[in-house]
Amino acid sequence: MIKVENVSFSYDKKNTIISNINFSINDGETVGLIGANGAGKSTILKLLVGLELNTQGEITIDDLKVQKDNLTKIRQKIGYVFQDPDNQLFMPTVYEDVAFAPKNYKFSPEEVHKRTIESLQKVGIEELKDKPIFQLSGGQKKLVTIATVLSMEPDILIFDEPTIALDPKNRRKFIYLVQALKGTKIIASHDLDLIYDTCSKVILIANGKIIAQGQTKTILEDKDLLENNGLELPLSLSKR
Amino acid sequence: MNKIENAIYQIDMFDKQINQKSIFNQLHPLFKLLLTFLYLILLTSINPYDIFTTIAMGIYLFIISIVGNLPIKNCKKQLKVVLLLLIIVGIANPIIDRRVITYINNIPITTGMISFITLLIKGSFALINTYFLIATTSIESICYALKMLHLPNMLIIVFMLIYRYITVFLKQVEDIWTAYSMRAPKQKGVHYTAWKSLIGSFMLRSIDRAQNVYESMELRGFSPDMFLLEKRKINVRSVSYFTIGVMLLLILRFIPIFNMIGYIFI
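Predict the joint structure of the above. Result:
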């Protein structure tokens, strides 16, 4: 379970990026973190994995407080898929990048291989395993980034703007993949159709504050609430 | 393919070669590194006028190339660059050092010419020898060997990360270059007025990208010691390779093979 209690964050004392937020996410839930550009979605995600630590308040992941001493354990539980795949992929080939995390966690070579192949199979890109990263398309890179975190077998998956730069086919593929994956999932996006298709719960952020949280349907069908916070109804709903 | 793409492609080719299961790829990295160092030391210690011993050192490279299936032509581009540099460095030798030592078809051969040719050969051999090391040994393995030689951890980690970052760095250069050339189509190269902002933008983007890549590594459990702790076994094959390699190098360096062959025919 993820618990965020009275959390505020700022890079300097003058500008508060995140202001006194509270929410909790139960095991197995898929939660959408929505908000306009610059609302603070990515910062909240970074706080959850301890990439930013100078916070007020408390964040706990399965009863482990997010603080320096616990980061190794926490990060083993969480798979974080970056917004830009080029920030995440740096090894020469797909296989080596996917094997990077299990190797780091010092699994045996057999286990590393097993996890790597299984992760590639889960996202349906086993045939790419020997390909150099720089030869992949944008959609393929995105799938590889997912495989790189699946090889850690995390309990929680975090996706930061996952459908940016994906074509419709790859976007649909991604949605099916998220629906098929087990565990807790947090998706930060302003692609509200994606959120509508994948999440059971939504947290709406604006200017570093939580404006609303609740059932996906309730929030995403509230036109005024969305428009007041720089968003629009999902396309699938606005056509009705 | 532009120059930057070509450079990325070259790095990829190295990585592919490293992953092949040839004899040399499976040898212990420490022995390969030590032999490379020994070769460089012995090569540089040769008298600049001793052209025959210098050429004899090429026999070692020839053998490695054949046994390890490592075509020397793969590094011809790098060789061109090194040779150009060496020509610039050594071009003064034949002009300054004009002592005639012999004549070939009435053409005087000077010590300056000999030392210049020796310099070119030495530089080429040094590059080919280093190419053989990096074409058969991953950067992690080289770092592991450096660790065994007790180099400071911090230096080794920086060395390893820089190598991993080269591709990311080249992609950044390519992106900025593409963005520039799309909006300056008639210009050859970068106009001097744009250099300042291009370099500034490149630096900022590089720092940002490096930060993100490192965060991604951290989130996947990266610890600086990871590659250095992975133990590699010293096997009989590696020890044999090292022993034979040392013996061969010492023979080539200290026994005048070409003279001995010459005596046979006299």
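Chain B touches chain A at residues 8, 11-12, 15, 19, 164-165, 167-168, 171, 209, 212-213, 215-223, 226, 230 (CB under 8 Å).
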